[in-house]
Protein 1
Amino acid sequence: MYEVIFDDEAIKLLNKFPKEVKERIFDKVISTKNNPFYFFERLTGRTDYKLRIGDYRVIADIDRGNNTIKVTVIGHRKNIYKNLD
């Protein structure tokens, strides 16, 4: 089982959403702990992964060695990819 870690920036972004959206995103991320590679898809040309939750996306780094999912960015699908480095 993987441990889910939310980056400080991800928590700030998550707190900007309405309560229902926040809960939906949080619950979905937590539900991926047993098999994250079934739910997350690798971003093209990058080492991080995305999780689709309706119109929202969660970007995370998955570390197989430490069994961690580090959530780094959360946002709406129309502008989340513009904010990636």
Note: The chain has three helices and five strands.
Protein 2
Amino acid sequence: MLKRELVNKVAEQLPDYYKQDVAQAVDIILEEISQALTENRRVEIRGFGSFSVRTRKPRTTKNPKTGKMMDIPARKTLHFTMSKSLKEVLIEG
């Protein structure tokens, strides 16, 4: 689903609001989630799931093409854990 599709779905369910206002609300929500994650805070949306930032350890690996050993630095990754209710819906169907 694209962001514009999300805005359209929300605007359909809230006919009293202009699509422009709904788009602005979606932008604000996404910006706040991004801001919280950049501050290493956990974001939990009940009934959907939670987002958190995890740090991967630095490691050494072998380039399969050249055989040369490479050092991969530590980096941050986004981790999503789905809620129990979402997991049940996905399993059912």
Note: The chain has three helices and five strands.
Protein 3
Amino acid sequence: MKYIIDRLEEGLAICETEARERITVPVSHLPENVKEGDVLQAEDGLFSLDTEETDKRRKEMKKKLMDLFG
């Protein structure tokens, strides 16, 4: 399952699924240096950073912002 980090606060990552469900995960259970907007892949209770999906989403968001304000 994929999760998107909505925000980081007080050692916790508030994540959202593609179905807009939210979960809270201790940052200590995530890969180092994660940040808001990163996409995580969860398998067997372990989280890994999906860099390809993260980059894709960031490019899409940048394009949307440029279309809106550019």
Note: The domain at 2-69 is CATH 2.40.50 (OB fold (Dihydrolipoamide Acetyltransferase, E2P)).
